[in-house]
Every structure is written in structure tokens, then in C-alpha cells.
Amino acid sequence: MDHEEFSAWLEAAYRPAREQGRGNATKPAARRFTLTFHDPAAARGQHVEWRLELRTPDGSMVERWHGSAPLTDGTGRHVVTWHSGRTPAGTYRLRMTALPRGAPAAMVEEERDIRVGDPAASRAVAPLRMRPAALAQETAAWDIYLGNLHSQSGHSDGGVPVAGCHGGSEPGTMPDGPAEAYAFAWEHGLTHQLDFLLVSEHNHMYDGADGSDPRADPEHARQLYRSGLAQAESFTAAHPGFVALYGLEWGVISHGGHLNILNSPELLGWERNSAGDVIGDTFTAKNDYGALYTLLGSRGWLGQFNHPGPGQFSANGVPLGYSADGDAAMALCEVMNSAAFSNRTDEGETRMSSYERTCQRALAAGWHVAFSSNQDNHCANWGASAANRTGVLLPHGTPLTAASLLEAIRARRVFATTDRTASLVLTANGHVMGERIVNQGTLTLAVRYRGGPGATSAEVALVSGVPGRQAPPETTTLLADAVTLAPAPGEHYYYVRVTQDDGSLLWSAPVWVTQQALTRHPAMRDRDAGHPDSLE
User: Fold this and answer.
1) Alpha-carbon torsion 360, 364, 370, 376, what sign?
2) Is the distance from CB of 69 to CB of 37 less than 8 angstroms?
């Protein structure tokens, strides 16, 4: 199956556990970092090469581990034990890289923050408790809606019954289609806030095969896609306050990369039957991301980079190669994704994959993407495997519809969270995250964070970089809920990452700033010209 690629997870508790010492004293327990590897297509004797680094916030190395783990029946596991000893209190970052031996293109990168010492001693930002449905901002009030923008149904390789779900299905063999997915998500959302669901079917599976079926009927494929669009529209109309979306997950993992097209009315494909007919409405060449970006831009469609790997989405021979057409369309980068084949229905999935480093590469390449957090459900548990969500901001009082949801995503008014009860908004001189602004003088960035019940912010990091510079961003810990900067002239982006004291994470959308040098009024320049001690 196309989606059964190599995957890896890093599990590390944010806060240290305590163990009983002599008498009633407690001491920090040894930290355990669990590395899990999975490759359904692994050959007998396959090993995974892995490396784990513990670094300070400024990137300095604290400790490094590396090794090799065998895969048994496609799965391997390794536990690293670490004693913090005299390590100073603070927040540290774990970085894992893992790849099957001999397959560097399949490399997976994972990062997690951990806390050493008491988090309350250096809490960066006190929690700002606000109304659950709206965050008051300097310029407006926003209603927050939460959902999942990545899932499959029986129209491709999803909808596998939970009881026996350990992987994707053969395309088109499961009876539960989009309508069943929307019904499940809507019911789950009644008690677990899930306001929208995108069913994103693999575009090359509409012939009922993971490969190409020479006997495929293109009209049947087109009608199946149109039926999905109709089911989404019908369910949304019948359930006000919930939005059902139907779209495509375009591409393949090998030498490519998956991306979601959120609002395409056309089935895009590269496969042909034995008569040479395209199995779909519109031909798109396999792995030609440059041409796809041009099509998306011309149609006004919206896209999302799904579980992005460092070597994927090559355009003009460059991974994550920038495209002006693509930049208009690609609104989201999936920064966090729960296990695609999780069969949990209690939001208890712990296998979470982080893609922040790859999303940072996209920002450094010049892409204007906000962050999303989804579940990639292949089992029949749409939106219920984990508590992570994509949050979208609508102007207060605006009805939630497919059109208003897509417009908010187009504006990049989006945040990502692994805790559906928490929310995060960043503003810059009163402009809400997702905007591109021109600025002169100082820039005030304000963080509006609301933690979930009993949760507070343990660390708030401001991440900043320069679009197009192709350089890693800088990260600064914020010590207040607002900071005033004096940016250098040129292009900048800023976003905020919040780590809660329970280890949950939130990411704001970036704000993009074109900083202009201060200019002086002509009369002032004329006056200064007559004085020899002028600074001009």
C-alpha cells in the first residue's frame, strides 16, 4: 500500500517523574525516551539506524545517543535511559533521526521538548484565561472552531473497522464511506469539540487498486468522486454548525510526498486504463509538483503539506522548492500527526509524529504556510484517535460554513494543537496571525493563550526567521505575554510555540512582516541639512 511507508515515533514525558528516596524524600526518576520504528515492507533482517540528541534551547549539545535496532515483523523499539544529574533546570529539546539501513530518503525526524526541574520556577507566560468560544483581540473577536483536515474512508484505503484495524485496506473494499465518516465525527464532536472533518481520499485509488488497473472505468471513478462531494454537501446542510469537506490526498510517498487538496471539484490523476483514458477528470503528472502548483493556483484551490519529510515535494529539483503559484494555494503544513493506523476511539493515542523542522524549512524557502495538527485516520475512528486538532478563527458571529472555513484557511488564521481544550492566537501590532504586513518602527507581538482545564503554559517560544534565506530560524523564550521588537529592514516571519505543563503543544500561525526603514519628513531633512552636526 502507498501509505505503508517507514515511520518512527519518539515518546518522552515532558515533566520528570519522581521516585521515593530514603524516608519520605523524593528524587527525580531516570528519564526514559522510547523510540519506536515501523516499516510494513521491511525485509527480513532489516535494521533501523537511529540517533537521539538532547540540546539546550540555543542548540548546544547536552548528550547524544545512537545505535541500530532490528525490525521484527516490521516493528522495532529502543529505550534510552537518562539521568539528569546536575543538569540545570530548564526546557531542553530532544531530536531523533531514524532511517532504515540503506534508505536515506526515508529518514524521519522527530523533536520533543522535555523539562528538567520544576516548571513552575520559570514559567514563561502566565495563562490568559478567556471565553472558550472567543478570544478578544486588539482588532476583533474571533470564534474558534476545531477539526481534523486529514482522513480517509472506504472510497480509498480507509474506513477499516476499529476492532481489526492495523493498517490501510485494499482500496475501495470497506463499506463505510464519507457519509459514515461525517456521522461518526459529528457525534464524537458533540462531546469532544470536532467542528469539521476533511475526508481526503488518495487520488490514485479511484480505480480500486493501489497500482493501476488496466480495466478501470474512468467514468465510474469520476462518479465516485462526485458522490463524495455530494455526501459532504448534503451532510453539512443537514447538520448546521458542522462542516463536512471532501477532497484529495494527491501524490505518493516514494520520491514524492502527500499533499491534501481541500476543495477540488475535480478528480486529479495520472493513471490510465488500457485504452489510454485518464482515470479522473484532469490529468496531473505523477510527482510533478511544479505543474500541480500551477494548476492549484489557476483554480484557486487550497492545499496542505501532509506529514512532510525533508526530501519531499521536489520542484525544479529542489525539495520543498518554492513556487509562487504554489504559495498562493498551499496554506497549511502539517506540524503534528497522530498515528495513521491508530484504532483508539478515546483520544488516547500517544504515537504522535512531529514535522516542525520540515515546516520550518518550508518557511525558510519562502512558503506562506500556517500549521495544522491532524489524525490521518484510516481506521473508522474519524477525529477520535487523539486530542489533537487544527484550530480555525472566524470573525465573531460568522456562521461556520464550508465557504467561511475555507476562507479562514486561505487567510492562514489557523493554529495547531495537541490539546483540543487549549487555544492560541498571535497578533503583531494588532494584526492577527496569518497576515502579511508592512511595518515601520517597532513591532509588538502579543500572545493570547488559553490553557485547557488545569493546564498552564510552561514555556512560550518565539520562533523567527527570514523567508527565502534557507536558514534555520532563531528561537527565543518569552518572559511576558507581549514583546516589542525592532526588526531589521527586510522580510521576516514570526510564530509562537507554547508548551503546556502537561507536555501538550500549540503552534500559532506565522505573521509575515516586511520591515521598512524609517523615513524622515522632507521638512525635517531640509532643516537637518543646514546643521553641520546633523546625523543624516
Assistant:
1) negative
2) yes
